[in-house]
Design brief:
Layout (H helix, E strand, L loop, with lengths): L1 E5 L9 H15 L3 E6 L5 H6 L3 E4 L9 H15 L3 E4 L2 H9 L7 E6 L15 E4 L2 H9 L7 E3 L8 H4 L13 E5 L8 H15 L10 E5 L5 H10 L6 E5 L5 H5 L3 E4 L8 H9 L3 E4 L4 H4 L7 E3 L4 H13 L1 H11 L8 H32 L9
Parallel strand pairs: 1-2, 1-4, 2-3, 4-5, 5-6, 6-7, 8-9, 8-11, 9-10, 11-12, 12-13
Helix pairs in contact: 1-14, 7-12, 12-13
């Protein structure tokens, strides 16, 4: 099958949408598919070349004056590769591919990676829409999208090519006991909630020094709200034991040295980092929002807490820090039943979606031809 993936870029900056696309494309190529990625480029290009994936420069922008050149570039791409499937991962690519080639042969599949995109519902322009979790699918259905045109492919990152193909990173020596979070510096990722919960853990642990040493918090990630999060840590009196590591391309050493992995997101349709933490065998505390429960086997593979409940999050974090046996049990559970979170499973599911979409499209085209054949035709020479 000839597959073209569209995204705004292929940069190694921790963008979950791009990471998922790169993993999927590499796995598809390894399974013998003919794969092309069209984007403005970035640090993933060498990895793509190693997997035999051709990267085609295609600037994608929402600025109206760029639309004609984007459409022209996309049409050249289609003429050159004649794909069976165009898979758009971002809004701009979805609209370009839908409206630039009206007599297209390919089927258009669009993935909605998060409901936060103000224009997410516009990806209904595709022949089939894919949601990255059941929770996101329900959200989209509530926004008026026909569930009959929607598929669900749960995100996964176990065996991710973008990580497996990297040289082994040097081990880290983190302070123990510790809590590790790998996430962008955004409030929707619950960083502020985690800082407040950690402040409670630290406060409660001060009276229990004979049972537990002073805990440390490691925040791995960057983003526009890092400065405000650092200020909050100082305000809470935990700056000295909170470590802002910034963006790390390969966070596996942090997972390996974590006592607890925490993700207290307020919104998160299908975070790849949950799969990565499970693959590493972390004891996990996370919020019951979006696709997180699905990725934690509804609590069997990690501890779930309500979003925004600082006190309950602190209580669960403190419990696991104090109780080594419980922590070990959750670490072991995290590594069970990982196949549903594997990139191989994600790829197989998408190949099934592609084939279903092509079959549907061919059936619709046959119906149109049959209707056209039954329509009365005007006769020449009528008086």
């Amino acid at each position: 099958m000839r597959i073209v993936h569209l995204a705004n870029h292929a940069q190694t900056i921790g963008n979950g949408t791009v990471n998922m696309m790169v993993d999927l494309a590499c796995m598809q190529a390894s399974m013998g598919q003919d794969v092309v990625i069209a984007s403005s480029g970035g640090g993933f290009e060498p990895l793509l070349r190693r997997h035999g994936i051709l990267h085609i420069p295609l600037q994608q922008s929402r600025q109206p004056w760029r639309v004609p050149s984007m459409i022209a570039g996309f049409n050249r791409l289609i003429d050159r590769f004649d794909p069976d499937i165009v898979h758009a991962h971002m809004m701009t690519g979805a609209l370009i591919s839908r409206f630039s080639s009206m007599r297209r042969r390919f089927a258009l599949v669009t993935t909605v990676h998060h409901e936060l995109q103000k224009s997410a519902s516009l990806v209904r322009a595709g022949d089939r829409m894919v949601a990255v979790s059941r929770a996101l699918a329900l959200d989209l259905e509530a926004r008026g999208i026909d569930p009959g045109r929607m598929s669900i492919v749960l995100n996964g990152a176990v065996g991710a090519p973008r990580l497996v193909c990297r040289p082994a990173a040097k081990p880290l020596r983190l302070r123990h006991p510790n809590i590790v979070c790998v996430a962008g510096m955004y409030r929707r990722k619950g960083i502020a909630d985690l800082l407040q919960a950690f402040a409670l853990v630290r406060e409660q642990s001060e009276s229990e020094r004979e049972f537990m040493a002073e805990p440390h918090l490691y925040l791995v990630g960057d983003g526009p709200e890092r400065a405000s999060m650092e200020a909050l840590a100082a305000e809470l009196g935990i700056a000295e034991i909170t470590h802002f590591a910034g963006f790390v391309a390969d966070p596996r050493p942090y997972f390996a040295s974590a006592d607890i992995f925490a993700l207290l997101s307020r919104q998160d349709p299908g975070p790849l980092v949950i799969a990565e933490a499970r693959e590493a065998g972390c004891a996990i505390v996370a919020t019951r929002v979006g696709g997180i429960p699905e990725m934690l086997d509804d609590g069997a593979a990690g501890v779930l807490v309500p979003a925004g409940d600082i006190e309950q999050a602190a209580a669960k974090l403190r419990w696991l820090l104090l109780d080594g046996q419980a922590r070990g049990q959750f670490a072991a559970r995290a590594r069970l039943n990982l196949q549903p979170l594997s990139v191989e499973r994600v790829s197989s599911d998408y190949m099934a979606v592609y084939q279903h979409t092509l079959t549907e499209r061919e059936a619709m085209q046959r119906q149109r031809l049959a209707l056209d054949a039954r329509r009365p035709r005007a006769t020449d020479g009528a008086i």
